[in-house]
Design goal:
The complex is a heteropentamer. Chain A is built from 15 helices and four strands. By secondary structure, chain A is mainly α. Chain A has a domain of 229 residues. The radius of gyration of chain A is 21 Å and the shape is globular. Chain B has a domain of 120 residues: 3-Layer(aba) Sandwich (Rossmann fold), CATH 3.40.50.300. Chain C is α/β, with parallel strands linked by helices. Chain C has one domain: Rossmann fold (3-Layer(aba) Sandwich), CATH 3.40.50.300. In chain C, the strands form two sheets. A six-stranded mixed beta sheet of chain C has the order 6-7-8-3-9-10, with helices on both faces. Chain C has a four-stranded antiparallel beta sheet with strand order 2-1-4-5, with helices on one face. In chain C, helix 7 runs parallel beside helix 8. The longest helix of chain C has 16 residues. The chains are: A mainly alpha, B alpha/beta, C alpha/beta, D alpha/beta, E mainly alpha. Chains in contact: A-B, A-C, A-D, A-E, B-C, C-E, D-E. Bound molecules: adenosine-5'-triphosphate (ATP) (2 copies) and magnesium ion (2 copies). One adenosine-5'-triphosphate sits at the interface of chains C and B.
Chain lengths: 336, 237, 231, 371, 282
């Protein structure tokens, strides 16, 4: 065609590249995390941050699935709690070494996620959410009812040797040291996901999320990439669950309950799923808020609810979206 | 022209309930040919494209590409053997950048002239915008770009000129002609814009009520009274 | 009385500004063509009238009443029917239901189910099938029929010829002319010169989000028209 | 003797067991206010801090840890057994001590017992002993069990079965409903179909109310002898009104207990919370606080380790008479009661019919507990 | 056995009345309304309190009206401003509302469980064969059938019904046909929440009132809605029937896995037919 079709409007470019300022801030935050335990913070703050970083891992997994495949899972507790249960059950019932138990738990959970993805992928949208919820809830019921195995709602205590990976078990059960472990895990996961989403695989899965049929028509398989995303997201959640079990040494079916899955999704959305790091940010905000509210009033539920409503309405692209546009504005750019 | 056919479609049929949207349609395309597929609304043109590309279920008939029977292949596999298409109802990746998605489509075929395709479809200036933010006409050209990149052997285009100005339609026609020669493309073109059809098609197949009404050179078809009555009307007769 | 009037309209999608001062007017019984290349903002003019694009400044009035805020249903209730670009057949409804959706019980006129079926017999045949299960051109007929069901004073058509067979375009042109003769004003957004010429009387040319020229089609040669559309 | 005594209460202030948590809170507040009014323990004031656990074990543990980190190393408040089971193993590491006043799981003073954990209330296996004394006197031969599908409900059902078969009674139907069950009709119908003459109910909170209300509609309560554990509580009565009249059950504590100490307690309670009488868990929690305060007094220290040591084997006067804390498993050795919901002074309330002395009510400590 | 099936019907009826409001709101706003559980609960409490003044039936009317107003407010304050946002965002807002409502109800009415007696003349029992059956339970079935019939007729055959169905899939296009979709959705969401209120009051003589009663029935009604096919009334009806029976007969015959059966039923249905029993409004 001869003539250029000129767009009438000023081009509205959705930034696909992160502004360098954000990258710098990100690296700084990551580093600050590693010195936190030496700053002499009150024990409560540190143990709060430790649980928050595990929740952050779970939320990152959930958010990644939303971002990359468009699926809102209401069942990620199955992978988080599932890995925790696997770890504890193996520690109680098998003679495997502590190391093997810790490594196998997320691996098995991930394989399960991969296998389940073929069932889940038959649906989409709300049906996907509900199907994932049903599967997770069935696991919850199973652990609840199979008393001989998992001791029902009273939960189960982990039994690991005093030393694993050459470290004292207490290393994993004290907030200051465990914080380093879970913080590193979180950082590695986020960096890994950022790289992944910039790769060809990232673009392809985004394309499939957008229009699965057309992706097939331009010559791509669409089932496996989606299954891989689900498995990966399950892996991330199960890493969080493994760390949780290790840290707490005690698990209950609450870890499998739909309300935990729902919470993870809330956190991911509050944090914003457009960026990989949004859900993690959301987790820290949420956990700290809930703790704060819980300290001062028994009406934490209202407070959390109201803040949730306010955040979601005022910042529709989540906390991370707000941060991004703030950064852009400071840099003199336009609001995107 | 050689005597071997690039595409042989025999007995293509699709039913919806009792109603045959496409009924036992057969035709053959030579290498390098641009074939126009025309017919009144609901004649079965889009359905024919669907059946050729394996879209949807309950289809019958055989499709041979360069002698290979591809009737049992999936959409993806058909693309891999060189069959590519555009859609009547715009079918793109709304959240992806225009360049990004065109490059993605090119990747499978190890095709690196995406910039050229973008330029020729006047998409360069808006290539970095998100597809959902450009006008309808622009989106239609993105759809076309997705079909074009990757140098398919056989290109099926479903109303590529719809919504374009006459100028642009004719420019697109020239462009297709050009591509067909340079890339040795074979094209099956569905179009209601007769200027485009008569400008570039080597032969025409006319569908009516799911069946082939007639087939022939453009001038023959144009003069066919049945085609005039059922389809062309006064303007082009 | 002007049925539709835009005065110095600026409009945007989100933060992307698309219209930069569009003024146009359709009087009772007029046949107006709005032409211009892809992406200049023709559809946005329509979208602004139904609140689908954001009016940032200027005025939109239906039947001389300034619309504020602009709401989609007000257009219809002021006697303006729209055949939208891309047809927008409502999924999940049958052909008949799609048509009934368009009807306005309190407006009188020649159009009703029977009249639409008579114009496009295929719609009668498919009356109880899903509207979206028809071919592209058939859906276009449905969209036109749906707009007529309201017996509008002004019919806005956004590229109605798209996807229609040449005969059907001819018929559409003829029926639009008939409609205009019965007093319905028409605002036609088109790329098809034949249709523009056979239906249009006045015209506006748009480029880059504003109206750059207007006049009478009869005063234009085919060459001039072509040039205008390509600015 | 200048530091304050800091008691951390991690309890279910909200959620499905919110009502029980509120009872615990009322009782702790009452006890603390009372002791502070007397000038504290050995001149030390008692201070409390609350954290909500929603009766979820994992949250309970986090909240307990938080309390400990804030210096509230004397813990109480767990509702669900899982909460206490999660906290107990951590007590030594945290250097804390805990007084359980509600959780009934046997394991807490059995296989999972902890040197820092003490239990004021009565465990499931001990309730079974009390049932026996009552069941002996009942003429009904065929019994059904309606339990909550939790460790507690199952335990209670199992002990009832054991007690019943020892007394040549038959169990003809058994149903265990999940927490938060809405519709009990299928269970009720099953019991009616089984031809049972009596039914043993081990349901609590909302489940108990739901069951009772629906059982009444089906005529089960009028037709069968109904007895239960945690079923006959002031709460059930308040909610159900006439429906609950005549229901039998184990009463771990009742405001109707006829001892001077209890009378004084009930009067004082009514002053602080006008128009109310201390309910079951309120009484038991207060009892726990009484013993705890005695232990602190004896230890003359705020160190959890010292307090735990002082509590072991302590013997002291309480609202239900003299009780002792068993060294072997840290279980309070105390009496238990069986009663019935009756009209007393114009209001329905659980009234004690049989008191079971401590030596019968509290079987020997579980061998599984090694302290 | 027959009585057990009848019991299943009662539970199905209750589930259906709760679910149908969800379906209505989902249909129009494409939002899975978590707050629905909260509305059901508030309806029960509002009915409880109003009943002290106006009696059970008066309480029912008050609860339905109050909840209808809450729904209108909800649509105005939440759904409308968020209609262009990601649906998940709106879902989360409704979740927030559920949390707030549970807390507020606990603040006003306390954490204790409350109970309501069946109203005259439905407080007795009838003899069915040799078994006594509570009359009130039969009333629940009757109400469910009435609601089902009313809604179906309205949506199928009235003009408003056509508008609701159209606007649920494409509000803009429906608006272009002269339908004030915002007013329409105010009334439909109001109707949906009014149904939640109705279900709360209807449930109260069966189930004890507590602040957590909403979340405890929410998941089961989600199962009904999804198994039935999102947005489908007929589907929800069938699914409620099925789940009511599965639930009850499960408890009778396979008590150990009964709680998993509805979940498994949903999983199986979705695997076989990902859209549930039905596709759209039907
Ligand atoms: N899903 C469906 N269910 C039922 N009938 C269908 C379905 N899809 C298409 N049809 C019918 O099949 C026939 C052929 O449709 P097709 O889309 O192939 O027509 P077409 O020739 O491309 O027409 P157009 O030029 O209008 O695009 C039409 O009558 C159409 O209504
Ligand atoms: N949703 C949107 N968000 C942002 N920009 C948009 C959006 N829709 C359209 N635009 C931009 O607005 C401009 C005008 O678009 P419009 O659809 O009005 O063009 P048009 O004249 O109708 O073109 P066509 O002939 O292709 O239909 C285009 O540049 C387009 O990129
Ligand atoms: Mg077509
Ligand atoms: Mg347009």
């Amino acid at each position: 065609m001869s003539n250029l079709s000129m767009a009438a409007a000023a081009p509205k470019v959705r930034t696909s590249t992160t502004p360098p300022v954000l990258v710098v801030v990100g690296i700084a935050v990551a580093l600050v995390g590693f010195v936190l335990p030496w700053l002499g913070l009150p024990r409560n703050i540190l143990s709060l941050l430790t649980s928050a970083s595990m929740t952050a891992i779970l939320a990152t997994g959930v958010g990644f699935l939303v971002r990359q495949a468009g699926f809102s899972s209401f069942g990620h507790a199955a992978f988080y709690g599932g890995a925790a249960y696997l770890l504890v059950l193996m520690s109680v019932y098998t003679g495997l070494s502590g190391e093997a138990v810790v490594l196998l738990a997320p691996v098995i959970a991930t394989l399960a996620a991969f296998a389940l993805s073929f069932i889940l992928l038959r649906t989409q949208g709300v049906a996907f959410s509900m199907l994932s919820l049903a599967i997770a809830q069935a696991l919850f019921e199973l652990m609840m009812r199979w008393r001989d195995l998992a001791n029902g709602e009273d939960g189960l205590r982990m039994r690991l040797p005093r030393e694993i990976f050459g470290l004292k078990l207490s290393f994993f059960q004290k907030a200051d040291t465990m914080f380093l472990v879970s913080w590193s895990a979180l950082i590695i996961i986020i960096v890994g996901l950022v790289l992944l989403s910039r790769s060809h695989f990232g673009t392809l899965t985004l394309a499939i999320k957008n229009n699965e049929e057309r992706a097939r028509f331009i010559g791509f398989r669409t089932l496996m990439p989606r299954a891989a995303i689900i498995a990966l997201s399950g892996l991330i959640a199960s890493i969080g669950g493994t760390l949780f079990a290790l840290y707490n040494g005690y698990i209950t079916p609450g870890l499998l309950h739909w309300s935990l899955s729902g919470e993870a999704l809330i956190i991911a959305i509050i944090g914003g799923t457009r960026s990989v790091w949004g859900p993690a940010l959301g987790a820290f905000l949420f956990v700290i808020l809930r703790d704060f509210a819980g300290n001062y009033t028994t009406h934490w539920q209202s407070i959390v609810g109201l803040v949730l409503i306010a955040v979601v309405i005022l910042l529709p692209s989540g906390a991370s979206g707000a941060v991004s546009s703030l950064v852009n504005r400071i840099r003199g750019g336009r609001d995107v | 022209m050689s005597d071997t056919y690039m595409l042989e479609a025999t007995g293509l049929t699709r039913r919806y309930g009792g109603f045959a949207a496409l009924n036992n349609v057969s035709f053959k395309l030579r290498q390098g040919e641009i074939r126009g597929l025309i017919g009144s609304n609901g004649a079965g043109k889009s359905t024919c494209m669907d059946v050729l590309t394996g879209r949807g279920r309950n289809q019958q008939g055989t499709v041979c590409l360069n002698g290979q029977d591809i009737s049992r292949l999936s959409e993806r596999e058909r693309r891999a053997v060189g069959l590519s298409r555009s859609f009547q109802k715009t079918n793109i990746f709304p959240e992806l950048g225009i360049r990004q998605q065109v490059q993605l489509a090119a990747r499978k075929a190890e095709f690196d002239n995406t910039e050229e395709v973008l330029a020729e479809l006047s998409l360069t200036a808006i290539a970095d915008r998100t597809a959902s933010d450009v006008s309808y006409g622009d989106q239609r050209r993105v759809d076309l770009a997705l079909a074009l990149v990757g140098k398919p052997k056989l290109l099926l285009l479903d109303e590529p000129a719809a919504g374009l100005t006459i100028e642009e339609s004719l420019a697109m026609a020239r462009h297709l002609r050009n591509l067909a020669e340079r890339w040795k493309l074979t094209i099956l073109l569905v179009e209601h814009d007769m200027e485009v059809i008569f400008a570039i098609c080597d032969r025409l197949t006319v569908l009516h009520l799911g069946e082939v009404l007639t087939e022939g050179l453009p001038d023959e078809v144009r003069a066919n009274p049945e085609v005039i009555r059922a389809y062309l009307g006064s303007t082009f007769a | 009385m002007s049925l539709l009037e835009l005065q110095n309209v600026h409009a945007a999608y989100g933060s992307a500004r698309v219209l930069h001062g569009v003024s146009l007017k359709v009087e009772k019984g007029e046949r107006v063509a709005l032409i211009g290349r892809n992406g200049v903002g023709k559809t946005t003019v329509v979208n602004t009238c139904i609140g689908a694009a954001r009016l940032t400044s200027g005025k939109v009035s239906f039947m001389t009443r300034v619309q504020k805020p602009i709401r989609a249903f007000r257009a219809a209730r002021s006697g303006i029917s729209i055949v939208p670009q891309g047809r927008r057949i409502v999924p999940g409804l049958t052909v008949r239901e799609n048509l009934l959706l368009g009807s306005a019980p309190d407006r009188k006129g020649p159009w009703n189910l029977e009249a639409v079926f008579a114009m496009y017999p295929i719609l009668r045949e498919r009356a109880d099938g899903l509207g979206t299960a028809m071919s592209g051109g058939q859906q276009q007929m449905l969209a036109i029929g749906r707009a007529l069901m309201a017996n509008p004073d002004l019919l806005i058509l956004d590229e109605p010829s798209e996807g229609l067979a040449p005969v059907v375009v001819d018929e559409l042109g003829a029926s639009l002319v008939r409609l205009a003769e019965q007093g319905t004003a028409i605002l036609l957004i088109e790329q098809n010169f034949g249709l523009i010429r056979s239906v249009g009387d006045r015209y506006y040319v748009m480029a880059k989000g504003s109206v750059v020229e207007d006049g009478r089609l009869s005063a234009l040669t085919a060459e001039e028209l072509k040039r205008h559309v390509s600015v | 003797a200048d530091a304050t005594i800091k008691i951390g209460v991690a309890t279910a202030l909200t959620g499905a067991y919110g009502d029980l948590g509120q009872q615990v809170k009322r009782a702790v507040d009452f006890a603390v206010e009372e002791v502070n009014a007397k000038g504290g323990i050995d001149g030390r004031k008692v201070e409390t801090q609350y954290q909500d656990t929603q009766a979820k074990a994992d949250i309970a543990r986090q909240q307990a840890e938080k309390l400990v980190n804030d210096g509230f190393t004397i813990l109480t408040g767990s509702i669900a057994s899982g909460e206490a089971l999660g906290i107990a193993p951590m007590l030594e590491r945290w250097d804390a001590v805990m007084m359980g006043t509600v959780p009934k799981a046997d394991a807490l003073t059995g296989a999972e017992c902890s040197p820092r954990f003490f239990r004021a209330n009565i465990p499931d296996y001990a309730d079974a002993a009390t049932v026996g004394t009552w069941l002996k006197e009942q003429s009904e031969k065929k019994w059904a069990i309606m339990g909550s599908d939790t460790a507690w409900g199952r335990n209670s059902g199992a002990s009832f079965t054991k007690t019943a078969s020892g007394l040549t009674r038959d169990i003809v139907a058994e149903g265990y409903a999940g927490l938060g069950t809405n519709d009990f009709a299928p269970y009720i119908q099953k019991i009616l179909d089984s031809g049972a003459e009596g039914v043993w109910v081990a349901l609590a909170g909302r489940d108990a109310i739901n069951f009772a209300q629906q059982a009444k509609q089906f005529g089960l309560i009028d037709k069968l002898k109904v007895a239960g554990v945690s079923f006959v509580t002031d709460n059930t009565v308040k909610t159900l009104g006439d429906v609950s009249k005549g229901i039998y059950g184990i009463i771990n504590y009742s405001s109707t207990l006829d001892t001077p100490a209890n009378k004084a307690f009930v009067d004082a309670w009514a002053k602080k919370y006008p128009g109310t009488l201390p309910a079951n868990f309120e009484g038991e929690t207060y009892l726990g606080m009484q013993v705890l305060f005695a232990g602190i007094d004896k230890a003359d220290s705020t160190s959890p380790e010292d307090i735990a040591e002082a509590l072991e084997g302590i013997e002291t006067d309480t609202i239900i008479g003299k009780i002792s804390v068993r060294q072997a498993d840290h279980q309070f050795v105390r009496g238990n009661f069986f009663g019935r919901i009756e009209d007393q002074d114009g209001t329905l309330r659980p009234v004690v019919a049989t008191s079971v002395a401590a030596d019968v009510a509290m079987p020997a400590a579980d061998d599984a507990c090694k302290l | 056995m027959l009585i057990q099936i009848l019991n299943g019907l009662v539970y199905a009826g209750l589930l259906y009345i709760v679910s149908v409001g969800l379906v209505l709101i989902f249909g129009l706003r494409r939002v899975v309304n978590f707050a629905h559980g909260g509305f059901y609960m508030v309806g029960a409490y509002a009915g409880y309190t109003a009943a002290m003044v106006f009696g059970f039936w008066g309480g029912l009317i008050v609860a339905v009206l109050v909840l209808g107003l809450i729904g209108i407010l909800l649509d105005y304050v939440v759904f409308r401003p968020l209609q262009n946002a990601d649906h998940m965002v709106t879902v989360l807002v409704t979740f927030g509302i559920l949390l707030v409502f549970e807390d507020v109800v606990q603040m006003i009415w306390g954490a204790d469980t409350l109970s309501v007696l069946a109203p005259y003349p439905f407080d007795g029992t009838v003899q069915l064969g040799d078994i006594l059956f509570p009359v009130y339970r039969l009333l629940v079935i009757a109400v469910a059938i009435a609601v089902a019939l009313g809604l179906t007729l309205w949506l199928r055959f009235s003009r408003a019904g056509l508008y609701v169905r159209a606007s649920s899939v494409d509000a803009l296009t429906t608006g272009m046909q002269g339908v004030d979709t915002e007013k329409l959705s105010l009334s439909v969401v109001g109707l949906g929440t009014a149904l939640a209120g109705l279900s709360g009051v209807i449930a109260s003589p069966l189930l004890a009132l507590s602040p957590s009663m909403g979340s405890s029935i929410l998941i089961e009604s989600f199962i009904v809605v999804v198994t039935g096919g999102l947005g489908s009334f007929a589907g929800a009806f069938i699914a409620a029937l099925l789940i009511g029976q599965v639930h009850n007969l499960g408890i009778v015959y396979v008590p150990n896995v009964a709680s998993m059966l509805p979940l498994l039923l949903m999983v199986v249905v979705l695997i076989l037919k990902p859209t549930g029993f039905a596709r759209s409004y039907s």
